[in-house]
Amino acid sequence: MTERDKNIGFALKKGSLCKRLNRDEAFALVSLSSPSDIHRLGKAALKNRMLRYGRVATYIENLVVNPSNICEGKCRFCHYRAEKKDPKAYIMDEKEILKKIADYQPVEMHLVGGLNEFWHFQRYLSLLRDIRDRWPSIHLKTFTAIEINYFAKMEHTSPEEILKKLKVVSVNGLTGGGAEMFSHRIRTAYCPDKLSPENWLAIHKIAHKAGLMTNATMLYGLGEKYEEILDHLLILRSLQDETGGFSCFIPLPYQPARDNESESGPAVLDNLKMIGLARLILDNFNHIKAYWPMIGLETAAAGLSWGADDLDGTLGEEKIAHAGRANSPLKTTKEIMEDTIRTGGFIPYARDGLFSVLKRKDLRI
Ligand code: V47
Fold it and tell me: What percent of the chain has pLDDT over 90?
């Protein structure tokens, strides 16, 4: 056995027992690439998630609302954004949004939009107040750190003040979007004008201090190096040590443009590898999502055996992945989520916005 093999074996064993990996051990896993090594990684991540959750896997009945795709940001990887005069630009109004919520009656609403003058902060606040009045128990997971920063700039105030105002209208937490890859090299190539990683982290830290739980993401498949993936995960792990305010981590594989055949996204095994790495390296994150719109329902089912414990939700209508070349369904149902989890070999449980399982009517527990 080579020295490298010994190190990998040691790191896998430690990770499978939910123990913390140091940087070198984590790097040994990030640099695994052969199909057989990715299967070894999966085996260790499965053992880890079985120690945490046994055969339970969760999903949520949720609704994604994206009030407008008009965005001043110019991220090169984003096929969803539109300029004001773009034929694909749209702006929803309050009536449409409230009708969607009334039709779906979701447990959670995931609300994010582009950076634009149409859906400004005061308009959002008034919408959120209305939603809270009509649906007191809905879990409101709203905005990315990028939007919080944009609102603060537009309102000539600080992100702290924006978050305080969101708390007043009983927002429950922030989404994990906008983290992209923290690497300055990747950001310079794809989104040079975007909020810096330091400020993305600072806004999440402020939210955690204010008692808002937030999520974390990582967009991969943009030509990143192993060290850049490792740094991203270790930076998140370190903030989680400090605040404990992240609910979950969601790896997001790049979805290529629909009209650019020469581009391709990460392969199935890359997607499974990323879920396994997250499970083994982010020892202080309770939940890892296998996000089906971007990896497909089948890979999401397999992701449960690579360390994921949650599939996100039914969504109502996913727009960001589908603006790219995602060929997953636009939305699912409770039945499809449960079938997917069973296909993966796990027991489905619906959950609430804080990842607590809801009582199953078919089981006496
Ligand atoms: O921030 C944009 C990414 C994110 C593409 O918090 C792309 O529970 C892949 O953050 N290919 C938005 N990704 C989605 C997001 C999210 C999703 C699910 C759950 C949660 C949560 C958050 O999507 C953006 C960006 O990083 N993105 N374009 C693309 N072409």
Answer: 94
